[in-house]
What we know:
Blueprint: E1 8-9, E2 18-25, E3 40-42, E4 59-66, H1 71-81, E5 83-89, E6 94-100, E7 104-111, H2 114-129, E8 133-139, E9 149-154
Parallel strand pairs: 1-7, 3-9, 4-8
Antiparallel strand pairs: 2-4, 5-6, 6-7, 8-9
Amino acid sequence: MVHSSPPQPLPDAVLGETWQFGAVPAGDVTSLFEHRPIPIVVAPPEQWPLRLGLASTTKIPGVIIQGGRRSRLLAQWLQQQQPEAVMAMATDPGGLILAAAGDRRWVLATFTDAEVLQSAQLYQQRQQNAKGLHFLLIQPDDSGVTSSGFWLLQTPT
């Protein structure tokens, strides 16, 4: 994925409150969205981990954003942008970059904390192990009860 334009800051209206890295075994990925009332789900069957030949125990990395009251607005904005990948830059400072259709990119987060930088490296490693597969989950809070959006994404490996 080669981009000519530098990443832009996210519009203030769609900034999430907190975020974290996560991982789910490949065999459990579809349970994140199949039987849950999530307003926006983009998970093409050809990207389902088991259809890609991944072992059910392979960890699929993801980024989880708690959007608070802006959760639905953030999910709708993301849907309009047509996300293609969330890349972690494990440099100092580090960052999360959202790549979207039309060579557009946004900075989802920046970080300098050593522990977060290690997590970014693990995220990158898991993404490579999972044939580029990863997810983006938007939810109002960390209760795990409701979600506003889910994208199953795959970067070219």
